[in-house]
Structure prediction request, 288 residues.
Amino acid sequence: MIDTGSVRLAVRRSGPSPTSAEAQRPVLLVHGLASNARLWDGVSARLGEAGHPVVAVDQRGHGLSQVPDGGYDTDTCADDLADLVRALGWVDDLAPVVAGQSWGGNVVLSLAARHDVTAGVAMVDGGWLRLGGRFDTFEECWQVLAPPSFDGMLYAELAERITSMHPDWPLEGVAGTLANLLELPDGGTRARLAREHHRSIVRSLWLGDPRRLYPRVTVPALLMPAGASVGGQAVDEAATLLPDAQVSEYVGAHHDLHAQHPARCALDLHDLADRADARSRLSKESSA
Prediction:
């Protein structure tokens, strides 16, 4: 648990110390809405083995982190990450590559655009989410996107169902998905993220417009869309408006592509770190 000054955030670490001789650029991994840091376990392990110091974080109100009463909007959660990066000492030459999935992609976009603490940013099937473009009112949005109720559902039965839904996933990906839920003493289930906090995050996504942030991102960016037909107008807009963006399409992949395809995801993030290192070297040479 790390006290950032505004909230206590639970983290999972992999890889060497960032100050060790063999260490490569640090990587910060950020989950999506109603998710948790364990969805990144497969990616974290591979990046750590490749020499990257890695921290996967539970955002406020998620996983094992503190549950404040408020602050469940995209920009405040991005501010949490900026405080976390500074608390880790990942500044200047240790500035991290930051990856966020789904809503976490919007959070890391806000971080990269509004705080000078990142060396690169990856948006994993998110970062371009703009619910105000899909729904005329928030109540319409919430009616469609409100989370399911787990009242009367047994954790054991739900765990079996989730496992059977992802037969091609690595075990750590399934375990991470199950960690979104809490088993109650009577065998029942509830989501770890409180429903009112879930609503606040969805509202923030409905109010927000990532397009205003793209031009403010000065670090290398990677867009990682997934699905039966990847890309689309929102991804194309992001790729065009971000000053230095590349796209890696995960055709046919699940929305949680980081849990489903950890090896490929880790390689993409490693390559982004190489781009960030090249940018840093060029900057130092030009100023010498």
Summary: The chain has ten helices and 13 strands. The chain has two domains: 2-135+195-287, 148-192. Residues 262-287 form the longest helix (26 residues).
